[in-house]
């Protein structure tokens, strides 16, 4: 007899719902001089994009008014006009990074979420499909990791700098929490689907495993990606997660 697939009805608590709403409403506030004209906003954005390129190439310490002006091909007076001090420039650079990064992540997640949820629903309905489902889930994660390391390496380098700088910059902490919170919220939904008793904790562990794999990948020469290593890493991780979930079932 064919098993009936359950429908997706995440049992999110009222506390989780309140937290999710709060996360979505966290405002993104820029610190530098506000602009009202389109031309001024374009120049301001060009300065921030130039600063981000410097972060990727030289690190946060390389962000200086003169260096950014040269990179953006604008007068030095333009950078000091929009950003009176270097702290505002660095904060707004990472604020822009977080906005762009969230949009890119949402594009990826929109393509992958249904595939992952369907696979996990199949696993919940038929535990005997565990190996096949885990292989499918691992392939989605490895595809994401490969794409990030080979096609968006600069983004990952900027993210590493962003996370480190947020530890020292109070203005960035809330932005960093929201940036990470979106990823955590989506992963938590996946663990709710398969009946985890601690979905947010499991999601946090998986998220940290992905972050660790990205960091290890960045340590390798540019253009290289060890798919065998990545598959082994995430297959082992899923075996531990799912093995624990179904051990008593």
Structure, described:
By secondary structure, the chain is mainly α. The protein folds into two domains: 38-83, Orthogonal Bundle (Arc Repressor Mutant, subunit A), CATH 1.10.10; 87-245, Tetracycline Repressor, domain 2. It has ten helices and no strands. It has helices at residues 14-24, 38-58, 65-72, 76-82, 86-125, 130-151, 153-166, 170-193, 199-219, 227-246. Helix 8 (170-193) packs across helix 9 (199-219). The chain is elongated and about 65 Å long. This is HTH-type transcriptional regulator BetI. Residues 1-20 are annotated as: Disordered.
Q: First CA to last CA: what distance?
A: 20 Å
The name CATH uses for the topology of the largest domain is: Tetracycline Repressor, domain 2
CATH architectural designation of the largest domain: Orthogonal Bundle
Q: Please, what is the average pLDDT? A: 81
The low-confidence parts are: 1-26
CATH homologous superfamily classification of the largest domain: Tetracycline Repressor, domain 2
Number of strands: 0
Question: Globular, elongated, flat, extended or rod-shaped: what is the shape?
Answer: elongated
Helix tally equals 10
> What CATH first level of the largest domain would be assigned?
Mainly Alpha
Structural class by helix and strand composition: mainly alpha
Residue share in β-strands: under 5%
H/E series: HHHHHHHHHH
| Sheet with the most strands, sense and barrel status | none
Tally of domains: 2
As a whole number of angstroms, the C-alpha radius of gyration is: 21 Å
| Helical residues, percent | over 70%
Keywords: DNA-binding
Pfam family, one: TetR_C_31
Region (Disordered): 1-20
GO molecular function, one term: DNA binding
């Amino acid at each position: 007899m064919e098993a009936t697939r359950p429908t997706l009805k995440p049992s999110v608590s009222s506390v989780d719902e309140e937290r999710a709403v709060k996360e979505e409403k966290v405002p993104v506030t820029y610190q530098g001089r506000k602009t009202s004209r389109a031309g001024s906003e374009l120049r301001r954005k060009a300065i921030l994009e130039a600063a981000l390129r410097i972060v990727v190439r030289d690190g946060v310490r390389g962000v200086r008014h003169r260096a950014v002006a040269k990179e953006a091909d604008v007068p030095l007076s333009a950078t000091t006009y929009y950003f009176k001090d270097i702290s505002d420039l660095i904060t707004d650079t990472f604020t822009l990074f977080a906005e762009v990064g969230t949009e890119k992540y949402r594009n990826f997640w929109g393509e992958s979420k249904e595939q992952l949820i369907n696979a996990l629903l199949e696993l919940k309905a038929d535990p005997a499909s565990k190996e096949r489902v885990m292989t499918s889930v691992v392939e989605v994660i490895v595809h994401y990791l490969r794409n990030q390391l080979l096609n968006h390496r600069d983004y990952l380098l900027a993210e590493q700098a962003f996370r480190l700088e947020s530890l020292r910059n109070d203005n960035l902490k809330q932005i960093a929490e929201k940036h990470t919170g979106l990823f955590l919220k989506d992963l938590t939904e996946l663990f709710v689907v398969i009946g985890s008793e601690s979905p947010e904790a499991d999601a946090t562990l998986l998220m940290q495993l992905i972050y660790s794999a990205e960091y290890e990948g960045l340590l390798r020469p540019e253009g290289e990606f060890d798919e065998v290593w990545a598959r082994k890493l995430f297959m082992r991780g899923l075996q531990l997660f799912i093995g624990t979930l179904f051990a008593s079932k």
